[in-house]
C-alpha cells in the first residue's frame, strides 16, 4: 500500500506545517532553500565544510524559531537573516572576523562605481571570498545584505569606525584585484591576436 506524502503547494502551507513540527516540512524546506543558503554561508565562512555546518545549524534554528516568523516579509529573506546570524556567531566563536589593523576614522562612504566592470558576478564573488575574514564579513554585511555601519558595529561588537575602515580596505583590495584581472585579460587578448597574425 502506497503511503501518501504531503506536498506543500504554497509557502503558506509549508510554513504552517513547519509550525506544526512536521518532519516532511523540514525536509521540503531544506531541499527548497539549502542551495541558496549554502551560498550565503560560504560568503562568510572560510571553507565549504564550515559553511555546511553553519547552514545545518541555521536550519535547526529556523525550525526551532519558526514561530518568530511574522510574515511581514519574505520567508526566504527571514531564513537568510537566520543564516547570516549563524555565520556571524560561528565567526565570533572562532574569532575569525576580527582584524588586527589600526582603526581609521573613515568618514566618506565608499564609491562602488568601480564595481561596474566586465568582471563576471561569479568571479567577483570569488574575489570577495578571498578577502581576509574581517574585511569579507563587513563587505558582505554592507554591500550584499544591506546593513549600515551602525548595524554592523552592533552585530560584530566593533566601532562604526572599524566597520568603515574594514569596508574601505576591502574595497581597495577588490579594486586592485579587478584591475589586475582586467589587465591580464587585455594582455591575453593581445597575445591571442599576435598569434593569429603570425600563423
Average pLDDT over all residues: 82
Rg, rounded, reads: 21 Å
Low-confidence stretches: 1-5, 99-117
Span between termini:
71 Å
Structural class category: mainly alpha
Percent of residues in β-strands: under 5%
Largest sheet: none
Discrete helix count: 8
Percentage of residues assigned to helices:
55-70%
Q: How does the overall form come out from the CA principal axes?
A: globular
**How many beta-strand runs?**
0
Q: List the helices and strands in order.
A: HHHHHHHH
What can be said about this structure in brief?
By secondary structure, the protein is mainly α. It is built from eight helices and no strands.
Explain this structure to me?
- 67% of the residues lie in helices and 0% in strands.
- It starts with 10 loop residues before the first helix and ends with a helix.
- With 199 residues, it is mainly alpha-helical.
- It has eight helices and no strands.
- The radius of gyration is 21 Å and the shape is globular.
- It has helices at residues 11-19, 23-42, 48-64, 75-93, 121-129, 133-144, 149-156, 160-198.
- Residues 1-5 and 99-117 have low confidence and may be disordered.
- Helix 2 (23-42) packs across helix 4 and helix 6 crosses helix 8.
Q: Key features?
A:
199 residues, mainly alpha, 67% helix, globular, disordered N terminus
SSE map:
Elements: H1 11-19, H2 23-42, H3 48-64, H4 75-93, H5 121-129, H6 133-144, H7 149-156, H8 160-198
Helix pairs in contact: 1-2, 2-3, 2-4, 3-4, 6-8, 7-8
Amino acid at each position: 500500500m502506497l503511503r501518501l506524502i504531503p506536498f506543500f503547494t504554497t509557502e503558506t502551507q509549508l510554513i504552517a506545517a513547519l509550525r506544526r513540527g512536521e518532519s516532511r516540512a523540514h525536509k521540503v524546506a531544506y531541499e527548497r532553500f539549502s542551495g541558496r543558503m549554502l551560498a550565503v554561508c560560504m560568503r562568510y565562512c572560510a571553507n565549504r565544510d564550515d559553511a555546511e555546518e553553519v547552514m545545518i545549524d541555521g536550519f535547526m534554528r529556523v525550525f526551532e524559531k519558526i514561530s518568530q516568523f511574522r510574515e511581514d516579509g519574505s520567508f526566504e529573506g527571514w531564513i537568510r537573516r537566520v543564516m547570516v546570524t549563524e555565520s556571524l556567531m560561528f565567526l565570533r566563536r572562532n574569532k575569525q572576523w576580527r582584524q588586527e589593523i589600526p582603526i581609521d576614522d573613515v568618514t566618506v562612504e565608499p564609491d562602488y562605481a568601480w564595481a561596474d566592470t566586465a568582471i563576471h558576478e561569479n568571479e567577483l564573488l570569488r574575489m570577495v571570498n578571498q578577502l581576509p575574514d574581517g574585511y569579507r564579513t563587513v563587505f558582505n554585511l554592507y554591500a550584499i545584505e544591506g546593513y549600515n555601519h551602525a548595524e554592523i558595529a552592533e552585530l560584530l561588537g566593533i566601532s562604526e569606525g572599524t566597520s568603515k575602515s574594514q569596508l574601505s580596505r576591502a574595497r581597495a583590495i577588490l579594486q586592485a584585484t579587478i584591475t589586475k584581472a582586467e589587465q591580464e585579460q587585455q594582455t591575453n587578448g593581445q597575445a591571442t591576436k599576435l598569434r593569429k597574425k603570425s600563423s
